[in-house]
């Protein structure tokens, strides 16, 4: 065969591949199977000072109600155009509820949480159990739990929602159902029933109903703060507790299993003591962070952001991440898809040892 | 063969069995493999009003120190003569420490806990971490943890110890080591380091060292009481929480695994609302209870005891147990060998439905 | 505000969203969170009679070697244009190796298997252990195991490869490494070392090294066939064994853990007795099947395919699937992403009860 | 107080302890909590050449039937007088069934197996599934499975039974029920139904009923032998497989869970190549061994036994054990209580490194 003939034969072969819905590996292998993860998602920053006013404007212009369901505005990673995804697996949004507003009940396969960077006065009813939302609290909505929110005050309130929408969409695994149009309850107790049963350290209530996901659905700031404070105090006293010098972390867990509070999303609160710089770490899997208090600097690969309260940033898979803070110290909430990788045997972490 | 010959042959056979260290099943089967458990251990009651004065007299007459190691007086089940066992698997003792006394450090395979029915002022140092002991607290000493106790006050203090000594002895699994003769620490903090790290509901400290047993070694009465109170309040409000009408229970668990706080001993606190009578229940495995507060009546098979604060009673395997209380209500601490049976696939429970 | 003003304000808001890399939920919710899975992937059929000649033509025109690495031609789902994915999580390809050809060593995060519908004479060396490939065999290449193939005969051989390439790509979790250019071994034993250690029913070799994935990497047709035959014989004798009348199934499992042979891919062989029609079943998650023997009819939603030996078809998430066969009976190999959904708590199955 | 007064006071105290069913720890601690396990059980040997004739004589003198249930003669450890226990947890017996004899159906909590050192022709029906017993086979009877045995031949047959009778007795956990007086089946298939479903390496039958214990109840000698042979051949070829030089081991496992075939008893077959001497090993927990083939020498602490086919020996907890064999090689079946210790966190092993 001449080179020309061969080229023609190859062209015919490739045309026949296409007609037969086939694709050769040898032309694609390099892009499909990279030497290390090459995410389309990019490091990205969303400033609270931008987000919050836009949410406020939405509050004036867009009603909350059946259909759209929530006044939530999602972080759209610039590397994933056409999507509303913060990372390939994680959804993050600011949700905004005006005075007296109600977001109606629904339930879905997608796992959700809310984290409150400021404000209070909204209750989220989860399967009819009213859960107060206050600054610093993490509130869970495990998959297929009916939930609805209502603002009991004269002031608007905004918070962030985290979900595994992109993962569930990619896996074609999602089911969704509308709930009743009227609120299940207007009660506004300080503590939800699930907290009263499950919110005692190391104590299992024998009479509590079995649940497929975390029975504790509210993690209050007072406990989170106390735990982080204790870790840094123990460090001062010379005892173990911090993950690295000046860096305290708690992970939110299901008290009935001691595993991650949510099956597909890891949730953690980090505290950096003033003057701390973390080791640079790469993790397979992506994360979204929100600054809860203080100020600091985030380095993700080549990107460098100065961040302050409410700012959110996305960390793509295997991107090197370093956090630091000067005088103020830094409290930051992190959520990630780590449990997915651990469950599938795909987890990998690399920690650069700091140079002297 | 004549009958006489046959009998003689059989006698020779049995003699030859014995000489060869053999025993036929057919003469023993009925006793070895009973239709239901037939424990040698019997229901038994030990009154605090008897125990405590005897412990006090020991305080005057018997020194604490290296060798005997502890001034502990064990409940000896009348059905297990020659032993110091409360049940075939469980050891229970009252331990007594006079003003300023010290019980020296040692460690052992045997799993231990202390439960405090009254008093305060003793610290138990577990692996050098000083743990305060106060009324209502459960304090753990998992296997092979060095521990020592010292009374920091001018008053004596007594509490109960629970261990799996009989089980470990029967299994020939025990190792024992003396520790240093001098106290690891004389510090008397209100909260131990393990509590500061692990004593926050649903929060895992990422920087805490991994441990083979529960990292939380003190369960404080304030949490236990709050959890039981909440269960009964939820019952009043019409929500799940109690195990049966008027009966609240919390189980002490390892926050790192959500399993029993100790690998071989289950620990629980029960609260009966005034006027409650429990369903009659049989459990394979044995238990020891101590009344913590209130008064009540205990029925174990044919036995019936009126009990009050500090009284201890042993419940043999498969014995029907019913607790009741009149006006006072009843708080009772229970420990059992349930985790052993669950781990070995031998657990079985029968609950008699109450007649109308 | 007039309607015109409002519309203008809303347009400005949406423009500001876009500029800030934000997307509102309320315009997307319906598409993102559907009432049931709505896969982009569609039911699809690839005929062996088309695939194999194309693979042969590739054998003439495309060399095997470093870079492209494998002469593998992937099934590209028509619903996922621009990809080489059979389903959103699964890769399936026909691989072709001519007489004496070698496919060089590499390793990758992606989990792989080969299944042989016809032929023999290729050995795949997995971490240096030579594994024969013969009709009916399933051969594993767990993640990060070096592997290479070589054809020891004068005849070409083709088989199918299954991998989790789409899943790992979507999760940005893949690592890839080239191995040595020369074959690790040219040995051609009938049984690999891993089979000699682990291929005995119910027997664990105590001296075998620990492995993070299945230590058994070859499942031979003689065992698969015997197991399926036994299930149908037991059905004839009136005993349990089949999953439904006339339908026998074996799942390939890791003998060290009894879980799926691969962490992200389920592998099974199905046998339908002549005249059998399965219940219609929907599963969350996708699958690819290959007919191994016999003929039958596949119904996937509205699609209906008559299939014969070697034909492959893809079943999207939640699509109703029915298999039937007339006189010939049907043996079919199935692989799916079920373990992913089970690990993440997303599994759901619906089985339509057959009408009378 | 004078010394005399003090002594008198102490005597009164001790008398009062006894009257109150109390025992002080300080007089008992050393015996209860030893520095290392000090078993009452002793190393012991029972020769097949003694056992078998005694079993034969029993066959002439003692009928099999309801009540005694089995013609089984138990090994009674000389260190545990008054019991029929081989070790504190394990029962081991020779069972003997004459031509045409039947041992009637019963079931019990106690876990059992049979191991056949010689002969054939008895079928054990386990839940109505007839299981052939042949030389080298291990046959299981998990707890609460009805079982009965019948000898289908003109020759008597003897084998060993292993059970956890002492453990279950100590734990007061046993239930026992008589079954029907007539055999469930007289069928004598070569392979039981459970083997036909579950006896294929790495293959799970999807339609098989779920069972709480191993669904595979027969482990055939041909597989055991092949697995051991392969390990030694791999050693010859320079590959991993043996646990130490010349020493091959397979453990019998539940194919549905990959854990020990029985929940409370570990079962293994060991093979020593001619000229092998094992490392000296101590294990917390006890074991009973039976020589299956060849001859060898057993050292247990100070004891030394030359053993041959059928000989049984008991190894107490923590006793140093060494096996060796000269020209003949040695095959030996081992059963132990290891799973109990592993489940309870009490396992400990010490392996003496061989001196040069």
TrEMBL record, chains A, B, C, D:
<keyword id="KW-0560">Oxidoreductase</keyword>
<dbReference type="InterPro" id="IPR013096">
    <property type="entry name" value="Cupin_2"/>
</dbReference>
<dbReference type="InterPro" id="IPR014710">
    <property type="entry name" value="RmlC-like_jellyroll"/>
</dbReference>
<protein>
    <submittedName>
        <fullName>Cupin</fullName>
    </submittedName>
</protein>
<dbReference type="InterPro" id="IPR011051">
    <property type="entry name" value="RmlC_Cupin_sf"/>
</dbReference>
<dbReference type="Pfam" id="PF07883">
    <property type="entry name" value="Cupin_2"/>
</dbReference>
<feature type="domain" description="Cupin type-2">
    <location>
        <begin position="95"/>
        <end position="161"/>
    </location>
</feature>
<dbReference type="GO" id="GO:0016702">
    <property type="term" value="F:oxidoreductase activity, acting on single donors with incorporation of molecular oxygen, incorporation of two atoms of oxygen"/>
</dbReference>
<keyword id="KW-0223">Dioxygenase</keyword>
<dbReference type="InterPro" id="IPR047183">
    <property type="entry name" value="GDO-like"/>
</dbReference>
């Amino acid at each position: 065969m001449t080179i020309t003939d061969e080229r023609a034969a190859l062209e015919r072969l490739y045309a026949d591949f296409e007609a037969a819905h086939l694709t050769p590996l040898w032309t694609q292998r390099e892009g499909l199977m990279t030497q290390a993860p090459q995410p389309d998602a990019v490091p990205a920053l969303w400033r609270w000072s931008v987000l919050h006013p836009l949410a406020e404007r939405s509050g004036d212009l867009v009603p909350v109600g059946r259909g759209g369901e929530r006044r939530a505005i999602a972080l759209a990673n610039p590397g994933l155009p056409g999507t509303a995804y913060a990372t390939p697996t994680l959804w993050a949004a600011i949700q905004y509820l005006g005075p007296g507003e109600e977001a109606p009940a629904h339930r879905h396969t997608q796992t959700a949480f809310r984290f409150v960077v400021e404000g209070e006065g909204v209750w989220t009813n989860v399967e009819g159990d009213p859960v107060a939302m206050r600054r610093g609290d993490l509130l869970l909505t495990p998959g297929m739990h009916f939930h609805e929110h209502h603002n009991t005050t004269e002031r608007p309130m905004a918070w962030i929602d985290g979900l595994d929408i992109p993962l569930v969409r990619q896996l074609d695994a999602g089911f969704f159902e509308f709930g009743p149009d009227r609120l299940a309850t207007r009660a506004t107790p300080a503590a939800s029933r699930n907290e009263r049963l499950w919110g005692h350290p190391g104590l299992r209530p024998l009479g509590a109903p079995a649940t497929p996901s975390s029975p504790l659905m509210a993690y209050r700031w007072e406990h989170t703060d106390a735990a982080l404070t204790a870790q840094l105090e123990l460090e001062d006293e010379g005892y173990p507790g911090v993950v690295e010098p000046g860096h305290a972390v708690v992970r939110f867990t299901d008290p009935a299993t001691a595993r991650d509070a949510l099956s597909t999303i890891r949730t953690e609160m980090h505290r950096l003591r003033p003057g701390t710089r973390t080791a640079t770490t790469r993790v397979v899997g992506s994360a979204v962070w929100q600054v809860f208090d203080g100020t600091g600097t985030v380095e993700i690969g080549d990107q460098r952001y100065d961040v302050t309260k409410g700012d959110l940033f996305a960390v793509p898979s295997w991107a090197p991440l370093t956090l630091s803070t000067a005088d103020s110290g830094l409290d930051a909430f992190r959520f990630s898809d780590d449990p997915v990788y651990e469950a599938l045997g795909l987890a990998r972490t690399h920690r650069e040892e700091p140079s002297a």
